[in-house]
Amino acid sequence: MTAPPVEELRREVRDAFSRRPYPGDDRITRRRPGGPDEAEEVWRLYRGAEWPQVVEAGRRRNLRDDLGSLTFDGFAYYLPAFLELALDADRRFDLDETLASYLWSFPEDVSARLGPAEKRAVVGVLEFLADEFDRRGYVQNNARAALEHYWALFTDEELGR
Q: What is the model's pLDDT at position 91?
């Protein structure tokens, strides 16, 4: 299946996630308060930030390593930022490969926190990434694996179509 044009996907992501509430400062990362660990640093960067602000931050620095420090609630909240960044096809795909791998590795944990339109947006971006990874000749296509093993299996009803 071929993904829709990029700007249509961007609109779909923004619309789908526009009403998602911020989960609260204590629910965004797997941190130990006061600890010098990576999750504490990620918490400082993301605390109180709306997901559109994270899009701008992601255009200045690679957010790939941040994903592992986010809780599933934090990941679900910031997911539209990661999806939108993944649509910047002229960038390196470091974040995108990690994002696809995360969506492949923890599909139930992520999808349980998403509504139908949000799931549909994830599927659309994964389709875009799978096509891009194939076009670029990637040997391993985590986006296609995520689709084939989980995300493409939703019914139209589950995706709100």
A: 67
Nearest to 9 by CA among 75, 84, 76, 82: 84
| Whole-Å CA distances, 17 to 1, 22, 32, 81, 92 | 23, 11, 28, 10, 25
Q: Which runs of consecutive H residues, i.e. helices, occur in the chain?
A: 6-17, 38-46, 51-60, 72-86, 94-105, 107-111, 116-135, 142-149
| Spans of the chain below 50 pLDDT | none
pLDDT at 65: 86
| Burial group, residue 21, by CB count within 10 angstroms (0-12, 13-18, 19+) | exposed
**Residue 155 phi, psi (nearest 5):** -80, 165
Write down the pLDDT at residue 44: 85
- The per-residue pLDDT for 38 is 79
CA atoms of 32 and 38, how far apart (whole Å): 10
Closest CA to 119 of 156, 82, 90, 84: 156
Residue 112: count other Cβ atoms within 10 Å of its Cβ: 10
